[in-house]
Amino acid sequence: MFQRSISRRWFVNTVGAMFVVLVIFIIVLSSMVQSSTYNGIEQALTGRMDELLTWLSNTYETYETGDFAPISRDYVENFQDKSKMEIMVLNRAGQVFATSTGFEPDRDQPMPDYELALHSPDSSGKWVGELNTGEKVMAVTRAVRDEEGRLIGSVRYMVSLERADQQTFFVIVLLVVAGLFIMLLLTLSGIYFIQSILVPVRQVSQTARQIAQGDFEVRIEKAKDDEIGQLCDAVNDMAGELGAAERMKNEFISSVSHELRTPLTAIKGWAETLRLGADPATEAKGMDVIIRESERLSGLVEELLDFSRLQNGRMQLISEKMDILAELDEAVYLFTERARNEGKELRYEETTALAPVYGDRDRLKQVFINIIDNALKYTGEGGAVEVRLALDKERVRVIIEDTGCGIPAEHLPNVKKKFYKANQLVRGSGIGLAMADEIVAMHNGTLEIESTEGKGTKVTISLPLCKA
């Protein structure tokens, strides 16, 4: 349907328009050729007429009687171009008394040009029409008058237009053939051009349907590096991005399912143990595990809800003027015991300086918690995580640097994308960094990540300070 629609529009808009233009051009040019031919014939007849009148004028002075009949008859009898045109000489009454053909003229043949010549100011008349025999002719008549303006007689030249019409018809045929040839070339070139577009477009359409059905591995083979080729590249890139997003989504679902199942398993196991009865020490330990895993489960669910609000644009900041360093102190304090238990060093030098910013204290603390949590997760036993800050007149920069495994260079540009996890062996949903980056951006700040594989990662959070 798409192909037919494009072909139809092309045929109507291009071939149809060109056909109309060519038809108009041929009609106009044919009319010009015919008009030019007829004008040439008329000029030739007029020239002969002027030649005859000049001869009559010169001959008139040699004749004493000035009789028009013998003078004109003498000219007609000696006329050299009898095969090309016919001369008729008419008396004052309009009757033909001499012709170059030597035959008696048809008395019933109308002579409109003669009537025009009698009443015309220049004593001349022209007529184009058909004789009683059906032959098409052109006739030119000139009325001859004396010095006082009295009619002496008339001279009529007549020539057949059949040959001229044949030549005109031949020219028209040539023009029509040329026009058809042009239309053929236009149609063939247009079909080739349309096909060169439609074939790739059909491939793009078919590939798009396959992508819509979930086949993200399909690709379009690019034939040429033009606009169609760029479209093919764009569709291929889109398929690649959708495929990567689909894989990340599946990995995210798998990761979140695992993250949810782990605390639920612990809670269920200890609940069953406590239901069967246990000593006070075991009971206290079990309750601690249930509470801890419940908090972990609640935190994960809250993180998913926050991410959903962020994606839907429903996350609202409760902003106020606050000291960002106080929230950083609390975030570091939350991980101090965990770092000690995991055999890692968490270095942070507290400061009494003030760093006032305008923002949501809970969301910014959530950012610090996510970054420090990631740093500890990817840092092995015996490693260190350092938290420091840099403060100037306009911005505060919180730098969190670890000595962990680092991020491979090919994964570094994607780590802030939602659902993306560079290391599938470490727990996590893959949305923490994406949320942190969005929250910092909502505070008109930036979150930058630098990393070297095998050496560690440095995260820099930059926020604008409140101005007095």
3D structure, described in words:
By secondary structure, the chain is of the alpha+beta class. The protein has three domains: 2-167, PAS domain (Beta-Lactamase), CATH 3.30.450.20; 227-311, Helix Hairpins; 320-464, Heat Shock Protein 90, CATH 3.30.565. The protein contains nine helices and twelve strands. It has helices spanning 2-60, 68-77, 112-119, 162-212, 227-275, 280-311, 324-341, 361-377, 432-442; strands spanning 86-90, 96-99, 124-130, 136-145, 151-160, 320-323, 345-348, 356-359, 384-391, 395-402, 446-452, 456-464. The strands form three sheets. It has a five-stranded antiparallel β-sheet, with helices on both faces. A five-stranded mixed β-sheet has the order 7-9-10-12-11. Strands 6-8 form a two-stranded antiparallel ribbon. A hairpin with a 5-residue loop joins strand 1 and strand 2. It is rod-shaped.
Key features of this structure:
five-stranded mixed beta sheet, five-stranded antiparallel beta sheet, Beta-Lactamase, 468 residues, Helix Hairpins, single chain
